[in-house]
Design a protein that fits this description.
The chain has 541 residues and is of the alpha+beta class. It is built from 13 helices and 26 strands. Among the domains are: 3-97, RNA polymerase II/Efflux pump adaptor protein, barrel-sandwich hybrid domain (OB fold (Dihydrolipoamide Acetyltransferase, E2P), Beta Barrel); 341-539, Chloramphenicol Acetyltransferase (2-Layer Sandwich), CATH 3.30.559.10. The chain has helices at residues 84-97, 102-115, 204-208, 216-226, 230-236, 254-263, 281-285, 292-311, 325-340, 353-363, 372-386, 430-445, 519-534, and strands spanning 3-6, 16-22, 29-30, 35-40, 45-49, 54-59, 66-68, 72-77, 123-126, 136-142, 149-150, 155-160, 165-169, 174-179, 186-188, 192-197, 343-351, 392-394, 399-401, 407-409, 411-413, 416-418, 421-422, 459-463, 482-496, 499-513. It has a 6-stranded mixed β-sheet with strand order 17-26-25-24-20-23. A 4-stranded antiparallel β-sheet has the order 1-8-6-3, with no helix packed on it. A hairpin with a 2-residue loop joins strand 25 (482-496) and strand 26. Helix 11 packs across helix 12 (430-445) and helix 11 (372-386) packs across helix 13.
Amino acid sequence: MATIVNMPRLSDTMEEGVVAKWLKNVGDKVEEGDILAEIETDKATMEFESFHEGTLLHIGIQEGETSPVDKLLAIIGEEGEDISALLNGKESSSKEEVTEEPKEETKSEATNTDAVAVPEGVQVITMPRLSDTMTDGTVATWLKKVGDVVEEGDMLAEIETDKATMEFESFYEGTLLYVGVQEGDTAPVDSLLAIIGPSGTDVSAIVANGGAASTTEKTTTNIEKKEEKPAAKTEEAKPISTTNNSSERVFASPLAKKIAADKGINLADVNGSGENGRIIKKDVENFTPAAKATEAPVAKSSSSISTTSFVAANEEKSEEVKNSQMRKAIAKSLGNSKFSAPDFSLNIEVDMDAAIASRKTINAIPDTKVSFNDMVVKACAMALQKHPQVNTSWSDNTTIYHSHIHVGVAVAVDDGLLVPVIKHTNQLSLTQIGASVRDLAGKARNKKITPAEMQGSTFTVSNLGMFGINNFTSIINQPNSAILSVGAIVEKPVVKNGQIVVGNTMNLTLTCDHRTVDGAVGAQFLQTLKTFIENPVTMLA
């Protein structure tokens, strides 16, 4: 008997999912444990495995499309099994209820079918929903131009969501006939993004209808008219970036072309290590141009700069840059925190001499690496055990006391900020905390981190000391009750035992939600934290 597979809930915050890629096709045999598809949430792309075996009879959500949780994703059953009742149950019942004017209903249905008809081989691509909170997307860069030949798997564009800038891959092959959203423009999810099809196809009717041709007859006529000049159009739109000065074609991946264009590298000078000599990302990143190749352009650009500077010396100029989707999401989240929580901040200075000496001793052990940030995270976990009021969350009717201690560590990524969470931090050693932080931070920067690895924090640490910042105040990462801001270690004169000596100090700032943490509680927490950091031996037990 056929089994319905619904869109899974892959995280506790997931409401919708996007099918990034189907790993099985209709008609394929599916074993229990096989990976059916890759599904994107707002945090990561995750593999979804089958808990059933049989034949994949139906796919309900196509690649690149979004769907609410629990909506029909696929049907698995016996080969040749009739699943029409599962697919058309609602449709059939609605037709039975219609008893008047059946001819008009049929006509209406035919019209709707015609409205979405497209020429043979033409694929309409809409703005994908790349996260469950995404309502619109911004095209950061087109990696293909109108007239370019597109292969299945080629990267079409880079699209900004509210979480990150992501490469959008083509699942079709043909010629890029139309671009519906220009670079820098924003469009709603499911709006017309591009059209791919046979070279020379007239898609004006589809464009006029926002992604659908008006009638099949009109579409067919347009194809016949346009087929007379396919070669000329393709020739005009031939991409410059794929040829060198000798008119020899350069084979390179779309990402390699993008990186080469950004760095001003001529792909003809790069040796490809990919299949059949294809230039890939690492070839461009590792490419070092010859010195002579830069001499002439430098001299020329110097002349151009001096002329431009003379003309624009007294010019006043401003430029508007659109906010990325991630920046919008950060603004909304932190704005809600800042304007909803009555916060206050406390500052304390910590003597770091003992911590510096202890870290040097620890790191002298082979295969051991501990940072000052790791020591701060460990000290916070131990201080939270002694001050459970800080390890809380506010709700309208109750204050939630967490028996577990999960410390979030803020990590800067391209165009945003992510907070990986070290689970049960108080139960980990310094070296275990260090390994966890490095692992999760690397995943965050490489967009490999999973939703589960960024959820459930009860306290957050934000460190800008490595940038030379002495003092700063962070915004609380709700639903946490507090966040610690860590400054740089500064060498300066200090008073010890009545003498002025050279010492190393570090400033810490604790920002608290006054609804759950009072000033005295925050001050006591900082005093305990100071004791642990200034006496690292207490953290080695």
